[in-house]
Amino acid sequence: MLVHNRAGRRCAWALFAVLFVPLFALPLLVILTASFSTHWSGAFPSGPTTAHYAAAVRGESLRALTTSLVTALTASVLALTVGTWAALAAAAMRARSIARKVLDGLFVLPVAVPSVVVGLAVLVAYSQPPLLLNGTRWIVILAHTILVTAFAYQSVSAAVLRLDPMCEQAAASLGARPSYVLLRVRLPLLLPSLNAAAGLCFALSMGELSATMMLYPPDWLPLPVLVFTATDRGSLFTGSALAVVLMAATLLVLLAVSRVRTKASYR
User: Fold this and answer.
1) What pLDDT was estimated at residue 137?
2) Are 122 and 129 contacting, i.e. CB atoms less than 8 angstroms apart?
3) Position 264 confidence tier, pLDDT thresholds 50, 70, 90
4) What is the mean pLDDT of residues 175-184?
5) Which of 23, 22, 45 has its CA nearest to residue 34?
């Protein structure tokens, strides 16, 4: 820690506990407890059961989880591809050029407005020919991609600025083509940042609800929508179990991404 005094460290840890427990740990603990309960009429839940989890990993719930995973993975790959390409293109521009400012503004715009506005814009734009996506899974994936591309662009842009140009210049001086420099020098150096950006995009897509509620077709129901509909009907315990499953699936994927990032950092 940056606090070297023992009393100061104790105060910092105490402040952390006071802020972390009621704001973060306690709500998650309540959801976890409710997922194993059938009643909650007093201060503590009652009727311990695992039936909610049995229902959460089969049938409609399992299909919703699969839908969320496919949507998040596809949107993350698309966002990382577009965001990386745009970040590399922006790095080649002058920092104060108008084109650079316009590019930055376009990629930051989706996070500067509410996600429900993005969902409405996608719905209006792709509900008529020639590109009719309304009623298909692709409109949901497109909306998620638009929402998370900004984070991929910002993460990769920050990493590109920290790259040592000497590596690229050395490769070019040895006769390497620009494509070879990009694939064998720049991208490997950016790999830890790319993995971090992919994990962030995946986590954000897994939890996206506002735009998804406006766009999802009946045959492409993501798990956050199912959590919302369950709690909206009053099935709080079932919704809690679904939320825990959603959180666990997201954490498992992020753990796998962090392992890749850790190995890449040693290269």
Assistant:
1) 93
2) no
3) very low
4) 79
5) 45
pTM for the predicted model, two decimal places: 0.86
Domain boundaries, the chain: 53-265
State yes or no: pLDDT of 109 exceeds 50. Answer: yes
Q: Tell me the two tokens of residue 26.
A: 């306690």
Please give the CATH superfamily to which domain 53-265 belongs: MetI-like (1.10.3720.10)
Q: Is the pLDDT of residue 2 over 90?
A: no
Scanning the structure block, which residue is given the tokens 């210049």? 169
3 residue type, one letter: V
Lowest mean pLDDT across 60-64, 82-86, 159-163, 176-180: 176-180
